[in-house]
Design goal:
By secondary structure, the chain is of the alpha/beta class. Helices cover 30% and strands 21% of the residues. It has two domains: 12-111 and 234-254, Rossmann fold, CATH 3.40.50.720; 121-230, 3-Layer(aba) Sandwich (Rossmann fold), CATH 3.40.50. It contains seven helices and twelve strands. The chain binds NADP nicotinamide-adenine-dinucleotide phosphate.
């Protein structure tokens, strides 16, 4: 007697996205693991996001409980937190939700930048400390920390800011500022010109890592411009970390 075959369950991977690595991972997984359902979740901060391969959902989950509910409801087999190294809340939510829903979790984090001997870096722990640091370093500030943290610099009235962001910032922001709407990658040649043309005397950046926005650091080194570097928040304790999409695929295959 033959036993009727039941429906075959397709493995489901959820990627928390919003980064180049998350898009690369979604592309790799849809190529290399056909027959696997790959969903990327975006926060919905950017008006016209670059969409990854596979399925996409947009918007918050409603905290760790909401994410745990989503993981169960959509039968997720593995969760990859490929969010930006500075998106601290969602990473902690992911750790909590994965534990609650018993779903294996991996953090995909590109390595941070490392200063060379000719760099003048001022590492700080937060945007608040960065705002303190620029006061002593110069008047013309190139601010590349994103539009969401601009309020932290809004009280600085002596400085002039060149603010680069993907979408237009909303107040509160510094009173003396010019906005440059742009999305990386940026070339070394353009970064050199930008520092020169705007007579920048201090650069502020998060330690985002990656190649797409690194040329500003090289341009600053060449021009002798000091760089205020905001250190990364930690990855939640106990969460394994991959540095590349390839390592993340290897982790999935080993599950
Ligand atoms: N922070 C940066 O410098 C930066 C830079 C480039 C790109 N990004 C990307 O922009 C997104 C938001 O960054 P953030 O710093 O505002 O994050 P965050 O402070 O860690 O998260 C705030 C809230 O946004 C929602 N959220 C964040 N990422 C999400 C995702 N991938 N899918 C669904 N909901 C998400 C969650 O809402 P609920 O609690 O309602 O689930 C979370 O609690 C992230 O996905 C990140 O990868 C951030």
């Amino acid at each position: 007697m033959s036993v009727p075959a039941g429906p075959v369950r397709v493995p489901h991977i959820l990627i928390l996205g919003g980064t180049t690595e998350a898009r690369r991972l979604a592309a790799d997984l849809t190529d290399r693991l056909p027959g696997t359902r790959v969903t990327t979740s975006l926060a919905g901060r950017v008006a016209a996001p670059r969409l990854p391969a596979g399925e996409v959902r947009i918007g918050g989950f409603g905290g760790p409980d909401g994410l745990a509910h989503w993981l169960r409801e959509h039968a997720v087999d593995a969760l990859i937190d490929a969010t930006h190294p500075f998106a601290g809340t969602i990473s902690f939510n992911a750790a909590q939700a994965a534990a609650t829903a018993h779903v294996p979790l991996l953090a995909l984090r590109r390595p941070g930048w490392v200063p060379g001997p000719d760099d003048t870096w001022h590492p700080v722990a937060s945007l608040t400390e960065a705002a303190e640091a620029v006061r002593g370093l110069g008047h013309r500030v190139f601010l590349t920390t994103g539009r969401m943290g601009l309020a932290t610099f809004a009280h600085l009235t002596d400085q002039w800011f060149l603010v680069r962001s993907v979408d237009a910032p909303e107040p509160p922001f510094p009173p003396r500022m010019q906005v440059l709407l742009a999305r990386g990658p940026f070339s070394l040649e353009d970064e050199r010109a930008l520092l020169r043309d705007h007579r920048i005397d201090v650069l502020v950046t998060k330690d985002s890592g990656g190649a797409a926005t690194a040329p500003k650091l090289e341009a600053a080194r060449e021009a002798g411009v000091p760089v205020v570097v905001v250190r990364r928040p930690p990855v939640p304790p106990g969460v394994p970390v991959a540095e590349t999409p390839d390592q993340a695929v290897a982790w999935l295959l080993a599950l």
